[in-house]
Amino acid sequence: MMGAGLQYATSPGAAQDAVKLIRLPVPTLGSKDILVKQAASSLNHLDLLWEILLPSVTFYAAEALWKVEGGFPKILGMDVSGTVVAVGKGVTKFSVGDQVWGFNAAGAVWDGSTLGGLAGHAWAQMVCMSQDAIGLKPSNLNFTEAGSVPLCGLTALSALKAVGAPWRSGATVVVLGATGGVGSLAVQIAKALGATRLIATASGSKADFVKSLGADEVIDYHTEQWFNSTLIADKSVDAVLDTVLQPGTGDRAYSKLKNGGGFVTLCTGIPSCGAPLPSLRSILTRPSVRYTALRCMSPPTGDCATVENLNELHDLAEAGRLRAQVQQTFKLEDIQAALARFKSGHMTGKIGLTMQDKEEILV
After folding, report:
1. Model's pTM, two decimal places?
2. By C-alpha distance, which of 262, 326, 322, 264 is closest to 295?
3. In angstroms, rounded to a whole number, what is the distance separating the alpha carbons of residues 342 and 156?
């Protein structure tokens, strides 16, 4: 079979150009594993290991560990969307022919041979996953759509839960960066979980799109500052979800939050989180306001990438409350073009990656 990733260790500056197609053996199943024939995946910031392992000495140290463990070639990709083609002897939850989706967070921690490999092996024609880490694909999403949701959807859902969702009595929620992979899903999920006033930031040219997702108000970041009190009054907001990650955002969010409100931002690096957290002064002067810097991880290290959360996304999609946003799709063999488009920014939703049968795959 074919996959896309890093054949050998390289430098952070050369890593993106080194990503290429690699011929691989079909993964070997454990007793409780399932083998998924991948139809589609997508690109996420977490896939670009050379940008998240900071400083560069961290990247080199990780590569040294991976070489010792036999972690090359390193097949990248986290999002899974495809059909079960084989099951281990102890599998009870899935059958051959089931259409599934998921985020291979557990495989990024331990894939059976590499500890801390930080790669989910999803940019490949076949992926092996535990039956306890994957779910049935929503029937109303095609494979490409489904392959764009898991990591970003789980991140958005967990982030909103960290700041109070579901809201039984309504809530005012701010989503900073509403057109990206996490933000576009977060707007929809927040509305589904009880947000009664959803304020989003986006380019003015995309305001209609963001409103179609459920936003009540859109602030054009090109012409206005979201933290201006004429737009959002101080102490008027229940939750702020930050996907833009600009310096100072934590303190600005604290000024807008009600007592008991919550601010959540996203980690951008490993091992340092790198998120724009509130200052100690803000934390001490507003003790009832809570903050979280989220990195979506699977149990036992985190409660973001769980099957329960994945199934909640499934139900939202089946109910028509969550739709995928795929701006552009590339074939696996065009991975370099996909990476270049991803890095160019200004996307609406996600960049999808589809798998083609370049050769016969024997299972």
Report:
1. 0.97
2. 264
3. 20
